From TrEMBL:
UniProt keyword Mitochondrion present: yes
UniProt-recorded name of the protein: Solute carrier family 22 member 3
Enzymatic reactions: dopamine(out) = dopamine(in); serotonin(out) = serotonin(in); histamine(out) = histamine(in); (R)-salsolinol(in) = (R)-salsolinol(out)
Topology relative to the membrane: Multi-pass membrane protein
Location(s), subcellular: Apical cell membrane; Basolateral cell membrane; Mitochondrion membrane; Nucleus outer membrane
């Protein structure tokens, strides 16, 4: 009996054909990063204070700047970040009846009276120190009592991720990787344009769910497809490379946001790549492993021959008995297959927990950049640069010392950095930034390792479903993360960091140490033994 791995060795485990396909598919990760953390720019909350029609009239008559008017008419208050201008209340007085003059916008008499005068709500809206730019926060006035609606924008995306990853994962296992990928990208294109043209915030949230439904599922299908087209020994490399392009997208995003100041046009730019991905119909084949798992041997063989031809190889082995070594007796995957054996159950629970904590901490650290008060474009760019070494560190370590030690080290670094950063005073700005960047590097490594380990531990017939189901806990974490960050930051700006650090250390201590150090090393050893002894060996990842 000839296995697909035997044929792939002859066709080229990672030849020119696979390099082309992986290079093209890695582009999918770039717009995914735009969608995943685009809220930092699309939902940016600038400095704001209550609009007063009388003050606006004086400002126009006197040619004051917004800052001049704020200094003269807005009282100070204590907040979680120190003494700031009041953002949610204004003075209940008639400014036209005061001694405020154009020549003295900072009248000492007026300033002395500010703390004693009666206050009222922002009945006439808000002024924003965000000239020339517009986020959905400034368009829909999502500040003060309505600030939690901003959390809903990101949470609704994760709701879409949650439902879409399961649904599209199931469709990909039943109807094929490429069919599901193409269908998903068409759906994303439509939903993305609807988000950009939403007439009100309720419609925006609904369309945001639909947008997220396709984005996450399509990205996961792409990840599974490229890992199935290469030899087992190359899966880690292509998987980490696929995620490295996500970090590349993090670098590109602040540049796009800087030159595209309107959140609606920024949404259009996020959507255009997904429409372009429909052209992959002419460049990317279906997964031969999936075809074999569905007993479509002839189609799988034709694609494998095309790969061999592009790699300038020829197939000499007997293909009449070609089969996938991971093919089970069932032809389609079901949810219960993830709990079929004790080892599969353990993998599913452990991986789900790690997806959850990694998502909460990773998203939280990125979204935190939007509330620190510095230059959000520069801060975001620096944080993106910090992410890039994560992929190289993973590739350097896992081949030599396995998975558990690098994963544990990454979580220790991330958790410790979060806890230390929370207690470094703001006066030591550069030290605080450096420690925070180290934490960002650690959680990026941990997140990327969870993704590719997830694909390695499941057999072909349930691989896409397994990745999709486990990653749903990532989406639940994504729903919680914005509320955890933004609401706790109101109490104390550093409080979310303490929670993130605690979660990361708890993840390390509780579960991951139970996982086998390198299941695929065992499979590779079995495969090598089979070749040497010419024996029929049918290893399964989920069995000892």
């Amino acid at each position: 009996m000839t296995t697909f791995e035997d044929i792939l060795e002859e066709a080229g485990a990672f030849g020119r054909s696979q390099m082309r396909i992986v290079s093209i598919f890695c582009l999918v990760s770039i717009p995914f990063s735009f969608v995943y953390v685009g809220i930092v720019f699309q939902g940016f909350t600038p400095e704001h204070w209550c609009r007063d029609p009388a003050v606006s009239g004086i400002r126009e008559r006197c040619s004051w700047s917004l800052q001049d008017a704020r200094r003269a008419t807005v009282p100070l208050m204590n907040s979680s970040v120190g003494v700031t201008y009041n953002q949610c209340q204004r003075l209940d007085m008639d400014w036209n009846a005061t001694g405020l003059t154009c020549d003295n916008p900072e009248s000492e008499l007026i300033q002395a009276q500010l703390s004693t005068l009666p206050m009222t709500g922002c009945t006439d809206g808000w002024e924003y120190d965000y000239e020339g730019r517009q986020s959905f926060v400034t368009e829909f006035d999502l500040v003060c009592a309505d600030a939690w609606y901003v959390d809903m924008f990101q949470a609704m995306l994760s709701v879409g991720f949650l439902v879409g990853s399961i649904a599209i994962g199931y469709l990909a296992d039943k109807y094929g990787r490429m069919k599901s990928f193409l269908m998903t990208n068409f759906f994303i294109g439509v939903a993305g344009i609807l988000v950009a043209t939403a007439p009100n915030y309720i419609a925006l949230l609904v369309f945001r769910v639909l947008f997220g439904f396709g984005v996450k599922g399509g990205w996961m299908v792409g990840y599974v497809l490229i890992t199935e087209l290469v030899g087992v020994e190359y899966r880690r490399t292509v998987g980490v490379t696929y995620q490295m392009f996500f970090s590349l997208g993090i670098l590109i995003l602040p540049l796009l946001a800087y030159f595209i100041p309107n959140w609606r046009w920024l949404q259009v730019v996020f959507t255009i790549p997904y429409i372009c991905f429909l052209t992959y119909y002419w460049f990317i084949p279906e997964s031969p492993r999936w075809l074999l798992s569905q007993n479509k041997r002839n189609e799988a063989l034709e694609i494998t021959k095309a790969i061999a031809k592009e790699n300038k190889k020829t197939l000499s082995k007997n293909t009449e008995t070609l089969t996938d070594e991971n093919t089970d007796s069932i032809s389609t995957a079901s949810f219960m297959d993830l709990f079929k054996t004790s080892k599969l159950r353990k993998f599913t629970f452990i991986l789900s927990f790690n997806w959850f904590t990694s998502a909460v901490v990773y998203q939280g650290l990125i979204m935190r950049l939007g509330i620190l008060g510095g230059n959000v474009y520069v801060d975001f760019l620096i944080s993106g640069i910090v992410e890039l070494p994560a992929a190289f560190l993973i590739l350097l370590t896992i081949e030599r010392i396995g998975r558990r030690l690098p994963f544990a080290a990454a979580n220790i670094v991330a958790g410790a950095a979060c806890l230390i950063t929370a207690f470094i005073p703001d006066s030591m700005f550069w030290l605080k930034s450096a420690v925070a960047c180290v934490g960002r590097l650690g959680i990026t490594m941990a997140f990327e390792m969870v993704v590719f380990v997830n694909t390695e531990l499941y057999p072909t017939v349930i691989r896409n479903l397994g990745v999709s189901v486990c990653s749903t806990l990532c989406d639940i974490g994504g729903i919680i993360a914005p509320f955890l960050l933004y609401r706790l930051a109101v109490i104390w700006l550093e409080l979310p960091l303490i929670i993130f650090g605690t979660k990361t250390e708890h993840k390390l201590c509780c579960l991951y140490c139970q996982m086998s150090p390198n299941m695929y090393v065992k499979v590779n050893n079995l495969r090598s033994l089979k070749k040497k002894k010419n024996e029929v060996v049918k290893p399964k990842v989920h069995e000892k």
